[in-house]
Amino acid sequence: GVLPSQFLEAKAKDDRRVVYRHYPVRDAKQDLILGKTRPYEPPTNCWSLGLKRNMAVALASGDVIAHFDDDDLYAACYLDFMFQKLQEQVPQADGPGGLAATAAIVTLAEWHCFDFGAGRFWHINPKTDPNVLESWRDEMCYGYGFSYVYTRKAWKVQAFPDTEDCEDDVFMGRLRRQPNVRVGLVKLPSLESGLVAHSYHGNNTGICEFRGTKRLGTVCEPFGFEGAMQIVASTRRKVPNLRSAPPA
Cross-referenced CDD domains, in alphabetical order (predicted)? Predict the structure, then answer.
């Protein structure tokens, strides 16, 4: 964006572990939000999502990278749980080099969604949902980047493409074709165990869990997001053009 985030600047001052860098470039999807339709080609004077991901990884100091979508809900145990699953992909994690020496990535095979308009959760498992087209199942399981946790070595094997759309799909697809990269799909401990809730609020620029006008998945009441609900209640009042998801 043109202006830095006051919220993130304050966080960086309060917590030395937070590194915030602002680059005064245009948001490539701003035109899309304002009404442009797909296929979308961003202006040349802005950064794509793929480039932003690469910049963030390059600036990070750790050997493990975790993605967070800024409008999704994450349980307090999310990082611990996913880090453990990443370690399970790497038998030699305790040996020489550990995770730093291994190209590996994990992502959720199932997750929850949150409808900001209706204040309602639902659960989606693309592998088993009868309303998910067969041709969509792998793309949905592997192509949503909001729950990616991976080693820096994996990113060095395959960086994100400099594209605005499908940057996660391409990144993961190319990693899966690499012979020495370990890729794992992670199941939830139970249907009610909340780790990530992918959000719908009517201003989404990415793809959500729908088939046409039909919502995929089933309504449920997960636990794990209780700590975020006060912020959610405050945020819902500020979301422009807030809409509820279509019915199942």
Answer: Glyco_tranf_GTA_type
